[in-house]
Amino acid sequence: xxxxxxxxxxxxxxxxxxxxxxxxxxxxxxxxxxxxxxxxxxxxxxxxxxxxxxxxxxxxxxxxxxxxxxxxxxxxxxxxxxxxxxxxxxxxxxxxxxxxxxxxxxxxxxxxxxxxxxxxxxxxxxxxxxxxxxxxxxxxxxxxxxxxxxxxxxxxxxxxxxxxxxxxxxxxxxxxxxxxxxxxxxxxxxxxxxxxxxxxxxxxxxxxxxxxxxxxxxxxxxxxxxxxxxxxxxxxxxxxxxxxxxxxxxxxxxxxxxxxxxxxxxxxxxxxxxxxxxxxxxxxxxxxxxxxxxxxxxxxxxxxxxxxxxxxxxxxxxxxxxxxxxxxxxxxxxxxxxxxxxxxxxxxxxxxxxxxxxxxxxxxxxxxxxxxxxxxxxxxxxxxxxxxxxxxxxxx
Length: 396
What we know:
This protein is α/β, with parallel strands linked by helices. The protein has helices spanning 12-15, 36-48, 69-72, 100-108, 124-138, 167-176, 191-203, 218-227, 264-268, 294-298, 300-310, and strands at residues 57-62, 82-87, 114-121, 141-146, 157-160, 180-184, 208-211, 238-243, 320-325, 338-343, 350-355, 383-388. Strand 5, helix 6 (167-176) and strand 6 form a beta-alpha-beta unit. The model is unreliable at 1-39, 41-77, 136-147 and 388-396 (pLDDT under 50).
């Protein structure tokens, strides 16, 4: 993405919590629309003097036997290790189900010279569970404490696996504090937030990587280079298909109480101050506009990003149009389960199709992908990427 300014433009009273460091992110005056609900939400957080960290409970994961985590950890670069904090652990499908935070922890353990020195989550139950896993897996002692992760000199980088609406603030605060960042997809909850993240990375000279899980693939890189040589001929368009069967999330009788183990104020962060309208607190936030982006921002972002890369696009399309809706489910969800989006890139546009319904009521199968070519039609070259079972295809 390209931006005209390297300054970060964030309303101080709304995007910086009380007591945060004095190195404020001053930027040129701009007219930026922020909804009145979000403005009110930041004022509420400001008034409560909530610590500036995105989430509240911290665990230092250290070798047992000697004092506190802060006292034991070596100074920056003392032994060449990169010391990482995992922000957001979460769960999918009920208690004890591994979510993205756990998956990242498992992968980080395989990387040489990386130490996970802190775990963070607003849900104390999940936090305690993951601390126990860390003790069993690494023979480490978990020490729970309230702290400000971004102020800690014992942390070099943070991994952000929070709900989508927290990605931007966590990234910007980490950059301010001199930390490098890996942030899960989607990069942000809105285009404007994403621009502030890029501006913060440039201003504070930090490394920020967004986890779309394809950019580090040698195979994808080689495919992109090959396609852009033109040896397959002219690419007319790219098609992204996200066929992921989903169930409805149910219909509640009204506002629900958050789990007792969750600090709901910290979980909300910049989102409007409203009670949850879902029976499953964790994960189902994906299907509400205040906190998630729907399936196109959940799984679709993987394939949209790869498709842009393969056809040689690294900016925004000239125009975009999207249509869809939430069909068949009589539930509280808000985001579409069926959607079609057109990104008007030149010379090859991208069409993204999202489907979350089975081929017929009561079935556990998805409908099949239909090609636009056949014996009675001329063969056209197109790029087809998507999720339909485990298939990924390049078709002519």
